[in-house]
TrEMBL record:
Transmembrane segments: none annotated. This is Thiopurine S-methyltransferase-like. The gene is LOC106820659. InterPro entries: SAM-dependent_MTases_sf, TPMT. It comes from Priapulus caudatus (Priapulid worm). Keywords: Methyltransferase, S-adenosyl-L-methionine, Transferase.
Length: 53
């Protein structure tokens, strides 16, 4: 039988902006790759989620 481990699953979130979904998916155990072109949005995301970058 196949394993169903979230840590084995990768989620790609293009143009994620400041979306809290990236952090939420990560807290559920998924490997998350968020891509954003706006440096302002990326900095705001890390500040709002209180995550060191």
């Amino acid at each position: 039988p196949a394993k169903d481990k979230r840590s084995d699953l990768k989620v790609f979130v293009p143009l994620c902006g400041k979306s809290a979904d990236v952090h939420w998916l990560s807290t559920l155990g998924y490997q998350v790759l968020g891509v954003e072109c706006s440096e302002i949005a990326v900095k705001a995301f890390f500040e709002e989620q209180n995550i060191q970058h």
